[in-house]
Amino acid sequence: MSVNPIMKYSTWLCCAGVLIAPGRSDATVFRVGPNGDYATIQAGINAAIPAGSGSNEVRVQSGSFSEHLQLTQTTGTLIVSGGWNAQFTVRSASPASTSINGTANGRILNAIISGGTLDFSHFLIVGGRAVDGGGGLRLELSGTAFAHIHDANLLLNTVVSTANNYAQGGAVHAQLTGSSALQFDHALVLSNSAQAEAAGYGAGLYIYARDNSNTIVQNSEFGDNMTTADGLNSAFSDGAGIFAFMGNASQLSLIDNAIHGNQLSVAPQRGVSSGTGILMNCATCNLAMHRNRWSANTGGAQQVSLDLLDTLGTGVQATMSSCLIEGGNSGGLRATAPLESGELDLLNLTIADNANRGIVASGTVSVSNSIAYANNGGDASLAAGVASGNNLFGLDPHFSNPAQSDYHLRAESPARDAGRNDAPGGIGLFDLDVQPRTFAGTVDIGAYEIGDLLFRDGFEQ
User: Fold this and answer.
1) Distance, CA of 281 to CA of 145 (rounded, Å)
2) Model confidence over 193-224: pLDDT tens digits?
3) Spatial separation of the C-alpha atoms in residues 447 and 320, rounded to whole Å
4) Helix (H, G, I), strand (E, B), or coil: what is residue 45?
């Protein structure tokens, strides 16, 4: 029986979806840079690829490198990190200390991993370019492979496809099969693009996952990425920040991310587009989305900032909680779950100040403890059969300062202590500020909890 790597590596500390690697005192170190043993990162990787179950580490000195890296791994642990000083003893906390520039002449990292662990961190990935998927990074994970991409900045990477081909993953293209796993965290994914004549998907991050694979995206920022389909035969432009297609029994968790200023563009009257921030097609997957923020994502009037499309499959578990969707020039959230599927539970959401309808839901969906307010196309459209309870739709929730995108609740808010603690899907432990989700016994409606003792006594300033 295969074992999912996120469970297999039980020595990793797992808390709220985050994996923290223990130190590897047994690792052999390969040093790259002017003061190292290798002049290029590729040379260091070639020397360090594990031949067995051991652990090797490539330390890259601070500086600038222009490379197009190739990595094939079947076993062992390989750690590749930048930001090291000239003695290779101290690492900078800033990913910008070591840049890898693709000079718009090729993909920066192509990694094919069928087993073992890759830990890749502390790099600025800039100027990568590809014609299919993954202008910055392309990850093909299979078997029991585990990749941890973290503490990285991915800027100005692009995929440009022609004719009837698709452009997928301007910054990162990840494909997972088998029991493989990907952890992507503490990353800045900014100003990347996916441009195609036919269809463009996921200018920031594109995920294709199936089988028993597991993907976690956490504590990352996806901003100002642009997906474009502009040819004569253009069809789709979807998921400017993140596009995810999940199948079989795959798992996806998005936790504590910011998705802002992403843009979709499609040739007028030639194609369709949606998910200005994120589009997810979750066919028989398990989905968890907690404490994410969507802000000022843009596209056409019929689009939405978050599109949860066709959440299928008996027994599917899909939950979204304590999230904010605001300020888009299109709609807020569209959630569809066909009647034969498991349930999609939406709870403690705040959806406000979008240019079209706040929330549209149909199928086996439940909506609880949520606010939809000041959305120009109407606040909520729930089809027959959608379960709804303890929501505040179309009524002023008394936000603190919505003009400055502050959607916390004032003390006199009608949303205060008005939620349902036993809402379908579970309210979770924390609100969008990672503060306790309940205070004095009853959960508030919306993404934020009023939790300060002074405020609750009515002495707010």
Assistant:
1) 24
2) 988 877 788 899 999 999 999 999 999 999 99
3) 11
4) helix
